[in-house]
Each structure stands twice: as C-alpha cells, then as structure tokens.
C-alpha cells in the first residue's frame, strides 16, 4: 500500500509526487505517455521555445534601427523544431532526476480505478496498486466542436501545430483564446498570413476589455473576424457567418483552438462514485473530492486551466494528505498570453470591479514612458500598464500589462494581491532602475 498514488505526470502530478516524496511519503506516479504532461510535451514549453525562435528572427530582421544589420537573416523551421525537441528531452530528464531524488516510483501505463483505494493498468489488469490516498491529475485535451469538417486532416489542434513541417502561407485560426493567439502570433512573426476567426466580439475572453483591442493592434500581421460563427470546414477552407452574411476564407492550414476539455473518460470514475460534471471533478479549496481519500488537481478540476495553478493545487493536495491546512486561492493567480508582445495580468479587471459594485479608480501609462522599455523596443513599440485600485481602501485590485516580456514581472503583482497590499505600500517599495517593472510603480503613482 502506497501512501500516495498519483495518476498523471503533468505539472500537477509531478509536483505532487515531488512534494509528497519530500515529506517522506511512499509515492507511485502513473503516466501513460511522457513525464511532463501537456505543458512540457505539447503545451507551454514547446510553444514558448518556438515563439522565442520566431522573436529572435524578428529581431534579426528589425535590428537596423538599433545598430544591428543582419543581412540575409533566414528562419529554419527544422532547426527550431530540433531545438524544441532538445529542450523537451532535457526537461523530461530533469523530472526523471527529481523523481529519483524523492524516491518516487514511476510506472508507465494507463491507469483506471478498481475502487477508491485501488488502481490497475488497463493494458495489464493483473498490475494493481493500492494507495491510502489517490490524486487524479489527468489534465485536459483539445475540444473538437461538432462543426462539419472539423476532423479533416488539414485541421490541426495545438498538438498537431507543434509538429508542423512547413510555414503555412495562410493560417486560419478558429478561436481567439490563449492557444489561438499564441500560434497566430508565432506564425505571423514567421511571415504567414494569419486570420483569426472568433465567435465572441473580442479575443482573449478573460482579458480587460479595454486592453484586448490594444493587444490585437499590438501583434503585427493578423486579420480578425470577430463575432464570426464557423459553420463548416472543407479541407482548409473555413465557412462562417458574420453580421448576417456568409463568408469564406481559403487557407492552407487551420488551427482549431476553441477550448480544452477535462480528461474524465476511461478512468472508471463513475465506478467509484466521484462527484463531477462535464466541466471537471468537483473539489473543495483543499482539492478534496467527495471521496475522503481521493483528490483532484489541475485541468481535470476545470477550475483554472493553467500549469502554475496545477502545481499549486498539487502542493495544497499533498498538504491536506499530510494533515495540513493549506488551501487553494484563485484571486492572485497570474495569467500570461505569450504573444509578441506578451500580455499578462493578475487580479480583477475593470468589468469585474463594475459587476461587484466596487468603488475603484484606474490609471494607465504607455510602456514607452519607461526608459528601459523605450531603449530596448523603440519609440513606436506598443505597450501599456493599467492598474485598478479600490478607491475606499487603496488596496490593489488588479494590474494588467501589454508589451515586452511582462511574463517575468507579473509574479510581483501576485505578491501584492495575495498580500492585499495598498497602492501606498507599493509606492514605498524600491524597484531596480532601469527596469521595465518600474512602470507598475509609476502607474500607481498616477493615482497618488
Ligand atoms: P480558450 O477558452 O482560452 O479560448 C477559446 C476561444 O475560442 C474563445 O475565445 C471562444 O469564444 C472561441 N470559440 C469557441 N468556439 C468557437 C467557434 N466555434 N468558432 C470560433 N471561436 C470559438 O481556449 P484555448 O485557447 O483553446 O485554450 C485552452 C486552455 O488552455 C485555456 O483555458 C488556457 O488558459 C490554457 N492555455 C494557457 C496558456 C497560457 O497560460 N499561456 C497557453 C495555452 C493554453
């Protein structure tokens, strides 16, 4: 009998294994494919690796105003893909090392429940394992909508895009969410014509409504069809209706990115009577399901489909197993869209504040007002910092950024929000100069 069995080795599962191992629990980690899950193998890491290659290429093409002439710069998709593969291999090796370090037993195979304390491997049901506690961390998969032609080989999901061996002449992206926009930005940077077809009237559903159009304008080389309902696909041709008119786009590659669904099937969850809906397994703030020894973390809960949320949920679940009182809080989870330029945010948006009836104040500054940003990006580079502060208490409610590599500084905002810091408190902190992060402090000074 293991202390903890974990099903799924993504950033939820492997972090749970590490943390439980560190607390001297006997741990079994079962994974049907590769260590690292979607994030490492077909998600966060490979997309960011390719986006960085594309960004370097763009810098080479556009460096002359900064004094760098790289005549004849070209992009090799094959080499970028090779480097992506090497990065994945290296990081998988890192997880393997961590599993050994924390004495985690790793089994390759697809697990299913026999009862609430027992799992077995589907391919070899004689292999059964018992756990005092079981953590379900099986993640999510791309959703395929019931649109005629959606399963045509010319239509790829994000996984398919990551093994593409050509740069599309015209890429049509269905869905202007995070996945859609990151790939749209990648291929637009590489010179593809890119069209984004989005059902809603704006991209990135959770983003500040004032900033989303600014992000659209900031990413170069993409045309948008907003409020567009895709009706059918024929190969790489997309038929949609917009403002009551029928329209057609002809491309040579289509990316379907209309959301992800939790991987609930095939686990025998009905058999053990777990409480769940189509959105995911229901959990409380300590990641407990309705079964006393079964926990669920990450995308499978449908709560926050982000790798960093999954890892934090893993820590909360392990703490609960160890008898602790840690709890998952979602208010201060930062998000990032790794387009070129990036967008990120933490806390609530202005619309959220209105809905909650809060008395708030906001301020915005262009990133060009920041010395480091201007020096490194030029006078026409787009970027903005918007802050939202409670007008009664001075507590920071949200910070939203577009421009540069803001993914590296949004964690600071998470600390402000988690700690319920006031604008006054942050104005009294010293930020390094010159650094782009100063824009947050300067924008808060606009409210002083
Ligand atoms: P999403 O939910 O972010 O966006 C899907 C978009 O597709 C929405 O804007 C929706 O209105 C639109 N849509 C839905 N049906 C449509 C249709 N029939 N025609 C046109 N548009 C349609 O989902 P996405 O981008 O697939 O990402 C899945 C999850 O993965 C997200 O929850 C996201 O947070 C996570 N993710 C996070 C990343 C990050 O943190 N940087 C990177 C990639 C994914």
Key attributes of the depicted protein:
FAD/NAD(P)-binding domain; five-stranded parallel sheet; 27% strand; 3 domains; Enolase-like, domain 1; alpha/beta; binds 1,4-dihydronicotinamide adenine dinucleotide; 448 residues; 31% helix; 14 helices; seven-stranded mixed sheet
Task: Tell me about this structure.
The chain is an alpha/beta fold and 448 residues long. The chain has 3 domains: 2-141 and 261-321, FAD/NAD(P)-binding domain (3-Layer(bba) Sandwich); 144-258, FAD/NAD(P)-binding domain, CATH 3.50.50; 341-445, FAD/NAD-linked reductase, C-terminal dimerisation domain (Enolase-like, domain 1, 2-Layer Sandwich), CATH 3.30.390. It is 31% helix and 27% strand. It is built from 14 helices and 24 strands. Strands 1, 2, 3, 4, 5, 6 and 19 form a 7-stranded mixed β-sheet that branches. A 5-stranded parallel β-sheet has the order 8-15-9-10-11. It has a 5-stranded antiparallel β-sheet with strand order 20-21-24-23-22, with helices on both faces. Strand 20 (335-337) and strand 21 form a beta hairpin. The mean pLDDT is 97.
